[in-house]
Amino acid sequence: MRLVVGLGNPGEKYRFTRHNVGFMVVDRLSSAVGAPVTGKRGFSLVGEGFLGGEKVVLAKPQTYMNLSGMAVSGLIRYYRAAPADLLVVCDDLDLPFGRIRLRAKGGSGGHRGLESIIAALGSSDFPRLRVGIGKAGEAADHVLGQFPAADEPALAEILEAAAAAVTVTCLEGLERAMNRFNSWQLRMESG
Fold first, then answer.
1. Residue 31: pLDDT band by 50, 70, 90 thresholds?
2. What is the pTM of this model?
3. Domain count within the chain
4. Does residue 44 belong to any structural domain of this protein?
């Protein structure tokens, strides 16, 4: 079983913000897995489905970003999963917009949602997919700001690549997904 958790903040106010890119990736995966993310499990919205015969649980914590660990630890207990069964999808300020990066484990990189999960699990040994949102201005304003309309076509392509990276991780393993997607980057059209 794979537990795919997209990080974000609940509520319409945050729906299209950069910090909610994890939610956006989970929404993209929802139809591929045949799992609408509408059920309630603890502090998360969840959907359960299958990819290539393997059970996949998609989750969107509803605790707000900084308390993501409370929701994730509850899901780990409920599904009797190990941290290695987890795949957390989140935004990354230090990664340029148009890049994605898979890692088998690691620190939080200053990401409050990851910090919360690491603290709640007592371990940083879980896979994560970081989706680059770049840096601009004040960090809090940037992550809580919406993607500009001009970035929407590029964002759609990035979300598709991120969803594909999750799918390959589930079907072929993390190593293959890392080899394939860690060098992926959005091709910017020159004007």
1. confident
2. 0.95
3. 1
4. yes
